[in-house]
Amino acid sequence: MTEMISPAELKALIDQTYKVEEEYVALRQSYNHLQSTIEQVIEFLPNAIWIVDQDGSVFLQNSQGKALSQLFDTLRLDEEDYEITFNERSYLIKSARHNEKRLLSATDITEQKRKENLATMGQMAAHLSHEIRNPVGSIALLASTLIKRVIPENRPIVEEIQKSLYRIERIIKATLMFSKGVSAQKNSIRWWQIREALLNAIGYYSYAKNIEFKFPEDNFELFGDLDLLVMLFSNFVFNAIDAIELDDEEEGTITIEHRVEGTTHIFEIYDTGIAIENEKALFEAFKSTKERGNGLGLVLAKNIVESHGGEVGLCEGKAKGFRFTLAS
User: What CATH number did the domain enclosing 103 receive?
Assistant: First the structure.
């Protein structure tokens, strides 16, 4: 015979059922809150995060992990810490196991690797420059002596040697300056001081085409480091000469325009040479867009401009050239 449940027992059973259901709802809410918190935490992290089940499927990931889903497919789940290159970017992969799941993270270290490589290249280049400087100085001294004694027919040969030496000396100076950093010693100077030194430097630069140079005629005042500013304008002008040399036309023009706005000097340098091929690599060290370049000219130009409180970039509009500012 079936035992009857009393009303009191039935009420207690119902109350217990409600209590269990309330505890389940509270537990479910707590779990959802915890999961939401974890998702927000991993979303806040600056690297890509994946939490992976034993079968290799993704249990949880942040938006960066989703964006790098193709990178995830290349990861070695059984290795803990290693570097990997993917789509021309470098990533540090870290992995750790917790219970039945594995946590994976991918940190973009491309910029860090680039800086490390630049530092290494800069140190090597500086060492080589120091080693080269002494023999180059000796050759320059011998060339200066030789040009005074050589017969007129052979003088152009010695002059070409001197121009080549000048180019080597510029590379050495630029390399050492890049490795040590740019420090401006500012004084009051006149534009004609820069102009005269610039024209003298152009005389030592080798080029075959007929190039017209249009420089400002006003002898305005500047406040800056004369040697650095001569290097600044020389780098831009030499870059323009090389662009004209590579152009199909037999002649070209290089123009420097100047104006003052408030307390700021604005310079624009135009040339009629070939177009700029890779604008992103213009101010990156050891990356040159031309055959004759060493990848430091525009980098140093940018550093010199910034050491004088200015900014540099490409000219806006149809004309091809650079625009930079100098604080007065």
Answer: 3.30.450.20
